Each structure stands twice: as structure tokens, then as C-alpha cells.
Amino acid sequence: MEKIQSLTSHNGVVIFTKSTCCLCYAVTVLFQELRVNPIVYEIDQDPEGREMEKALLKRGCSSPVPAVFIGGKLVGSTNEVMSLHLSGSLIPLLKPYQLLS
Q1: What is the DSSP letter of 98?
Q2: Which residues neighbour 81 within 8 Å (Cβ) at sequence distance 6 or greater?
Q3: Which pLDDT tens digit goes with each residue over 47-79?
Q4: Cβ–Cβ under 8 Å, residues 76 and 85
Q5: How far apart are CA 44 and CA 39, in angstroms?
Q6: Quick one: which of 81, 100, 77 has its CA closest to 91?
Q7: Confidence of residue 101 (pLDDT cuts 50, 70, 90)
Q8: In what order do the strands lie in the sheet with 39-42?
Q9: Where are the extended beta strands (E) located within 1-101?
């Protein structure tokens, strides 16, 4: 889907979420605590949200939200993000996008 491609290729960190998803909120807060200001796109607020969900699943997301993209590449959903964080591999991916303190 063109909208997903455009958002992920023009922004460093993008999280596709739903406004009622607690795991989406947790992933967003994690990124903010790591000094990254991601683009948070709530697909349930978009008229094409259902099509976006299907497109995210086709791209390989284990669940449609949260779907995290870093540097234009799909990282995955909550499990993948938390696994990367616990292994110490998430921060190096985010380093180019971290805000200066």
C-alpha cells in the first residue's frame, strides 16, 4: 500500500498503532524513553485502516499493530521489539534517530 511505503520511507521511525491498543502504547512509550520521537500512525483513525492492516500482515507483521519500522525496514510487532531491546540490539538501530539530550 502506497501510504505505508510513503510513511516508512520518509520517516526514520514509524509505529502503526490503534488508539485502543495497550501494547501499541507500551511500544510507543519505550521508544520515547529511549529518546526517539517516532511517527505514530493510528490506523483505526484512517478510512483505509482495514486495507492498511491487511497490507501490514502481507509485509510480514505477526499482528497488524503495533507494526514498527526503523529506517524504512519492518522490525516487527511487540515481541520482536522487546526481544531486540532485551538483547541490546534495539538501541543501535535507533541511534541515528535519537534526540540529543
Answers
A1: B
A2: 27, 30, 66, 68, 75, 90
A3: 999 999 999 999 988 888 999 999 999 999 999
A4: no
A5: 15
A6: 81
A7: low
A8: 39-42, 13-17, 67-70, 73-76
A9: 13-17, 39-42, 67-70, 73-76
Residue count of the chain: 101
Nearest to 96, CA basis, from 24, 29, 38: 38
Q: Which amino acid is present at 64?
A: P
Q: Which residue has the cell 541515528?
A: 96
- Find where cell 495497550 sits: 22
Percent over 70 (pLDDT), the chain:
99
Of the candidates 57, 54, 37, the one whose C-alpha atom is nearest the C-alpha of residue 46 is 54
User: Which residue, chain included where needed, has cell 484512517?
Assistant: 46
The x, y and z cell numbers of residue 53, run together, are: 492492516
